[in-house]
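Following up on my earlier message about zinc ion. Here are the inputs again, as you asked, copied directly from the submission form:
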Amino acid sequence: MPIYEYVCPECKSKFEKMRPFSQSTEPADCPDCKTESKRVLSKFACFSKSESGVSAPVGGGGCAGCSSGSCATCGG
Ligand SMILES: [Zn+2]
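Thanks, got it. Here's what our run produced:
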């Protein structure tokens, strides 16, 4: 079962949840304040295909999990 990452919009808490792929797009409740939290994209979604077919970082400024573009999530 895949693990998905979520960030709470209230307390900015980051947590992971293991759930079936069929529920991957559903929000998860923050373990701290029970606020409905959106999923942050994993490294698999960190890159998008450019027109030339070469994978490139989205926006060139990191992934959903960082702003440096060189964290483990970015694969850098
Ligand atoms: Zn929270």
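One observation from looking it over: The chain is about 0% helix and 30% strand. Hope that helps, and feel free to reply on this thread.
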